[in-house]
Amino acid sequence: MQGLALIVQKALRQDPFAGGLYVLRGQARSLVKNIWHDGIGMSLYAKRLKKGRFIWPSANDGMVALTASQLACLLEGIDCRNPRKNWRPKSAG
Fold it and tell me: Cross-referenced InterPro entries, in alphabetical order (predicted)?
């Protein structure tokens, strides 16, 4: 976590201890790591996809601001710029 906090501090020029959530991806785009400081300590959430890659939005200056729904899509491997409906059961009727 210290290495990720240092990336946030040096590369993004942000304070990783200010309470923001930072999502960083691996080079292969199949791994994301989320770090945040809740005022008590640093937390880490990591997710690796078995298949495919995370759809990463275009970044300006190395950063992207996401809404909660965009983050949810990203973590599910859904392209939030072009979401598609998945299979749904037929309604009983």
Answer: Transposase_IS66_Orf2 (IPR008878)
